[in-house]
Every structure is written in C-alpha cells, then in structure tokens.
Amino acid sequence: MIDLWFLDQSGFAPTLPTGYGWGRRGHRLVVPYEAPQGRRVNVVGALAPYAPAGPRFLFETRRKAEGRYDAIAHLAFVDRVAQAGIPARPCVIVLDNYSVHHSQPVKAAVPGLAARAVRFTFLPPYSPELNPIEAQWKQVKHQDIPERSHATDVALQAAVERALTNRARTLHESTLDLPRPA
C-alpha cells in the first residue's frame, strides 16, 4: 500500500474564462476584463484521489508579491503533502515535467526524501490527461468561481482560495469515498 498523490501547478488570471452568459433582452452582456500584469494567482495542489478515507486535496496559493514558486517552495509543499499522508505508508508523488521539479535543489533533496519513504515519479511529457488534478483545475476555473473578473490580486486570491476550499470539501464528501469492490 502506498499514499499516491498527483501534484500540479495552475495559474489564475484576474479575468477568468467565460463560457457563456445571460443578459437582459436587448442589452449586450459585458464582462469586465482586467489585464493580468503582475496580478495572477498561482496555485500548487496535490490530489490523493484513491485515499482510503476519501479523496484528499491540498493546495497553496501565491501572488507575485509573495514570491515565485521555486525549488524551496516546492520542497516545502512536498513536505506538507508527505505529512498529510497516512503514517508508515510510502508516499509516491506524481509530477509533470515543470522545470522546478527537476531543479538541482530538488534533485539534491531526493535522497533525504527517499529516507522518509517519499518518492517522485514523472508523467510522460505533454500528458495532462494522466493527471487527475487537471480536471479539478478546470472545474475551479470554469465553474466554481462565479465572479469572472477581479480588480485586485488580493480579491482574486480570496476567490480562488474559497473555490479550492469548497472543492476539497466536495471531493472528500463525494461518492469516491464509497467502499470499492476488492
């Protein structure tokens, strides 16, 4: 038995995608557009879809003012994921090929992580369909944030965190935690 986590990053712009909209008859619907210059919110998340007690979803948001998602931030998040796992079970973290995942500090940390039974495995290049967290990002961006435009990065970050918190709760309470046949 292992603790299997899928880790990925996603970015949220001040004006989120609009699939469709409704307006009053005879009036043009206008969705405000906020240019993203330095106001994106980046998220790193980890999903354990096959956890025995129901899916687990961890995330951290980061604005430009809070610094880049670099190797140090990545290793801190990996440590948080490993601690959220079931004690005494090996932890396998599935990653894509983002440059931070292959950076020298991360490579240097691999032996120490292995000593704690934390291992990385990498997806083939250009294969987001193999990472179940990608579907969660899509749902949050296209469905879970009703306000489509945010004037500040702080407002966007608050909206993203609310949506991700609700998504984590929904995943945990979903039918995925029903018993599975042996």
User: N-to-C SSE series?
Assistant: EEEHEHEHH
Which residue ranges are poorly predicted, with pLDDT under 50 across at least 5 consecutive positions?
A: none
Count the E strands: 5
CATH topology: Nucleotidyltransferase, domain 5
Highest-level CATH class: Alpha Beta
Quaternary structure of the protein: single chain
In spatial order, strands of the major sheet run 3-2-1-4-5
Q: Enumerate how many helices there are, as a single number.
A: 4
Helix content: 25-40%
Largest sheet: 5 strands, mixed
Number of domains: 1
Q: What is the straight-line distance between the termini? A: 14 Å
CATH-defined architecture = 2-Layer Sandwich
Mean pLDDT: 89
Describe the 3D structure.
This protein is α/β, with parallel strands linked by helices. It has one domain (3-16, 31-177): Nucleotidyltransferase, domain 5 (2-Layer Sandwich), CATH 3.30.420.10. It contains four helices and five strands. Strands 3-2-1-4-5 form a five-stranded mixed sheet, with helices on both faces. The radius of gyration is 18 Å and the shape is globular. It starts with a strand and ends in a 9-residue tail after the last helix. The mean pLDDT is 89.
